[in-house]
Amino acid sequence: MKVLLDTSFLIELKKGNEEAVNALEKRKERCEDLLVSSLTVYELLVGANYVFKKYGNMKELMVINEILKPLTLVSIDSDAVRRASAIKADVMLKGLDVPDMDILIACSDEDAEILTFDKDFNPLKDLGFKVTVLGENNG
Predict the structure, then answer these.
(1) pLDDT range class, residue 136, cuts 50, 70, 90
(2) Which residues are within 8 A (CB) of 102 and not within 5 positions of it... i.e. 6 or more apart?
(3) Which of 18, 116, 119, 129 has the CB geometry, 3.0–4.6 Å to 6, for a possible disulfide?
(4) How many domains in the chain?
(5) Residue 85 within a domain
(6) Taking a C-beta distance cutoff of 8 angstroms, is the pair 116, 134 a contact?
């Protein structure tokens, strides 16, 4: 089993959120690989670079780089972009709004379980994605 860690999950993990820590702990025996999308890396680094440029503080960049070290980077290739465009069309036909970035992240590795705190991923469950949205009472 592979697990794809979304941006919101990694932010919560960085904060020491117990639910995030427990979610990883629960999966450690079955998990072959922890993945991160190149788009998640982008989102995290935008925030860290902003802090650095605004305040001159490198700590956030260093923390993000440490968090990313043990994760396997998954790049968005043309196949993932094509899948994401078809998924976006399905979502639009259902009258739902899922941010493009979330769809692209989900398509980074369609076989992986996605761990996230972002409820915008919920509609993707109905389209066959293995999504676990944490931080919700109903899951």
Answers:
(1) confident
(2) 6, 118, 120, 121, 124
(3) 116
(4) 1
(5) yes
(6) yes
Q: Is residue 96 part of a domain?
A: yes
Could you give phi then psi for residue 111, rounded to 5 degrees?
-90, -10
* Sign of the C-alpha dihedral computed for residues 117, 120, 125 and 129 taken in this order: negative
- Where is 19: in which H helix or E strand? helix 18-27
The backbone torsions φ and ψ at residue 32, rounded to the nearest 5 degrees and listed phi first, read: -85, -35
Residue 126's pLDDT is: 93
pLDDT digits (tens, 9 = 90+) for 19-61: 999 999 999 999 999 999 999 999 999 999 999 999 999 999 9
Domain of residue 107, residue span: 2-133
Tokens 């960085």 sit on residue: 14
Tell me the CATH number at 86.
Answer: 3.40.50.1010
Q: Which residues contact 68 (CB under 8 A, 6 or more apart)?
A: 36, 41, 44
Its pTM stands at 0.93
Cα(80)–Cα(20) distance, integer angstroms: 26
Q: What is the pLDDT of residues 87-132, one digit of tens each?
A: 999 999 999 999 999 999 999 998 999 999 999 999 999 999 999 9
